[in-house]
TrEMBL record:
It comes from Caenorhabditis elegans. This is SID1 transmembrane family member 1. The keyword Glycoprotein applies. The chain crosses the membrane at residues 274-297, 353-373, 404-423, 444-463, 475-492, 504-525, 531-550, 591-610, 616-637, 649-672. Keywords: Glycoprotein, Membrane, Signal, Transmembrane, Transmembrane helix.
Amino acid sequence: MTFLLVLQILLFLSLDKCQDFQEIELGINNVNLTTEGNLIANLYQVILNSTNEPPAIRVSVDSLAATIKYPFTMTVVRGKTVHNVALPRIQSHQGKEFQYWFASDTLCDEDRSAEQLSQPVQISIASSLPSLFNLRVKSVNNFIIGNKTFKSKGSPSEPRYYMYTFPDDVDKVDIRVTSPSEICGKIVARRVNCPLFDASGLLEQSETFFYQSFTTFAGFSLKKSVIGRQFHLAFTVHPDETLCGTPDNFFDIPNNPARIKLAVISVTPVKDNLWLPLFPILLYSISMSTVIMLTYLKYKWLDRRENNEPNILDGTDSEGNVLVDKIWLFDKPSMIVSHKEYQKLKLVKDSKYFNFLFFQIFGSILPSLTTLFDKQKTSNNLNFCYLNFLCSLEFLCFKSFNSMTSASSLAVIGVLNLIIVFREKIFSFKIPRLPTTHGLQQRDAPKVVCFLGLVSMGILWTITNNCPHRTTIHLDMYTSSWIFYAAFMWIYSKRHGVRKWQQFFIIAVSSIYGCLTLAENMFNVNSVSRWVVKILFSLTAISSTVYFCYQYFYERPSGLQGNQWITPPFESPQLYLSDANGIYNPLRSKVVLIVLLICLSVVCAILPLLTSESASNSAIICLGRGQIGIYLVYYAVQKCRFERQSFTLFYKICCTLIFIVFMLMECLNRYLANFMLTYNVLLTPAKSRQLNMDCVLPGIDLNDLRHYSCAVDCFLFICLMDFIDSNIKDVPKKHIFVF
């Protein structure tokens, strides 16, 4: 076909100038024209008005008789501009070939002088066999983009492009494209350089260009210093939906086989507002100042109640001033185990848990830094970064300064609370931490693991929010699972103590979830592989929950011997001499929590298996948050059941307020995450941009508010955990229930 095009050009140039051209009018559709065959050229000419020359010329042609073996060729000459078209027009897309028997191209004039634009349009058409065709030459009056919005229609074989020139006082423009149709299209901005499209209607590559795939919305900003004083804005339609995903409106495609797409395009000059970045900084400063003040007050409160014990060196075993309900359960014949039997004589060093930081640095933080280099390699591909293009604040070298600022708030929460935990070493004072006979034994090690997770998540979010992409979703799932299970173990360790299996449990489960998410979202897995990943997730979710429940009910307290504790299933009872104190038993109400946790894990394990579209990462989030919520509510109900006599009015007011605000913030966070997303990396880039929203405040979008609500939510959870057991600081450990 290339040979035929070259031959056609040579024939056209060799024709005697005196040869007659058939005159056709501009804008008139010439139907039922015929070629003679044998590559004999039909010559046509359109004389333009030299006093009012059109800014650009578009030539449309169609011929149903064209075949690959016997093609239909057209050469268009306008002064120095030469353009070729061959039918059928063959386009390659994502490994597939598509054929079209019609084409509509706009001539790309490198020379924009008045002399060039007034030149007549000369057309040579030939085919191997006699063919019937239609021909139209029209003026593109809106070719020069102004400040007004304009409409454009295109299809895969009918690309459209326009030209914009920066005014002298404009350095930046916002490009916005909307469409009522969900047919997959592409918008391309390229420095002025001809030709723009090849003979098949595909875009010619250039050194300086930017592009986005879109369905109903596309938008980005361009600077004169990057794109040049003039640029072409091309609008094309993809042959299929491979790059954009299945449309929500399934009738949009069958009812439009030609894939004609309407687009509304605007190019708006904007001025960089140097004050706009101050709004995210101001909101960040106010939020973090409030958190720092509340953290300081909590720090002073904790210093007055170290170990939850008013007299920490008091070794007496007196009953204290506060009693709890149902103390008789600790006596024979029930022998319910108390917190005293779970108290370890050897305290865990909190600094030892900084070893967990190794897993966070090499498991999430360092891998996320690679996205910065990936973004540089694909800087012209505006599909790579999943941004809210309607409210992304470009500042310094950052693509989304507002999102990065709000995302770092979670790291600040973690750092501030780590300072509280290690305040003794930081501020060079030491409070004795000896096992006491009253209140819960202080155990900060689980808190350290949880706070390290918050710091890592804050750093990870700060890095990835500059250019969100699905390549880091497994890192997000890994760190999120870490935080969920660290918080879960924090609740567990308050009454049960700290054991080594908890460390390995957090590392193992979060790592498995991260790997499964990587396999599901990063690799091009087929349907069978995807089902294997989902089955592995289901097995992990159920088995990890069952293992925790087993440990929760049957783990022997550190203060008891084997003959003093119930025999776990699958283990044969050991022979001991009879013990005078009898055998201790766990609370029977623990079975309620076990049933709830297992039911939740089964539901979350089954959900991804029900439909092929369901992703395991959603089930991971649901499982992690659900387990924490169930355990926290169960913990509060058990406190009301067994310790309500120890509740003071101040305790009731504080716990109720913290719990209510915590639940409200959690609901707000879930609402923003599920129903008000401004982008979604699990979708295609085009589908994700359909979620883009305008700023709710100057330089602040709903995604930023979600970051702040998440940080506040975590802070309230920490305050609740630190305060929830302050009511039993005077209760002897032997009368504290373990649930």
